Amino acid sequence: MNEIPELNVEKTTEDIIEFVQDKVKEANADGLLVGLSGGIDSTLVAFLACKAVGSENVFGIVMPSTTTPTEDKLHGTKIAQKLGIKYKEIAIDSILNEFLAVTQLDADRLSIGNLKARIRMSIMYFYANSKNYLVSGTGNKSEILIGYFTKHGDGACDIEPIGELYKTEIYNLARYLDIPKEIIDKPPRAGLWNNQTDEDDIGMTYDLLDKILYNHIDNEMDSKSIAETLNISVDDVDSIINRVNRNRHKSNVAESSKKTMMVI
Q1: Choices 1.10.3720.10, 3.40.50.720, 3.30.420.10, 3.40.50.620: CATH for 9-198
Q2: What is the pTM of this model?
């Protein structure tokens, strides 16, 4: 089977809710904190979080910068209001600018984008610690596999509720949970710099990416077979497989050197 099997949205929803409930209980936490970007992933996680622990135990934070599309900021607050969760809006530009002024580095666009993600995660953990909440990640399987996230930024979290769902499966679950169509129909984007979109950064659509990843990871097919199956070049397939291999470190605990014991 070369196509991703159809997702059982009802059972998947139940499984995620149970998973979240178990992790919150294990940690003896009082609730969940979700960063609300206004995109489909964070919106889906917020919906699931409310179903798992109740809207009264979910806190959202909207953290726009000058490169955040106005539409995304509005969608973030709109979702918080729709779900009836408490939330805070914190613009991060003053923190970002102070950091850049202190370090006095002529940083490139990617470094500044990653810094934004790490500032946001610092804010989230500050609030989570003060409330005894777990920080919920919003990463999906497609992004995690190719390393399309910031290490110690949006990749940092206590639980990853949708981390086993490919991006195309996210859309299926979002429709099942009646997430607003305007959010589902938006192009996926991180807003780390102006006019940025996920698919431009990745170099292909999520639909094609997911098919390559599914056949490589789940079906264990080689590059040539995947290329022939999807009618694309081997180079396109290899570019994704190489990206998966190159970015594995981003999802792993930092490695330590081995130690040698004295022989007595």
Answers
A1: 3.40.50.620
A2: 0.94
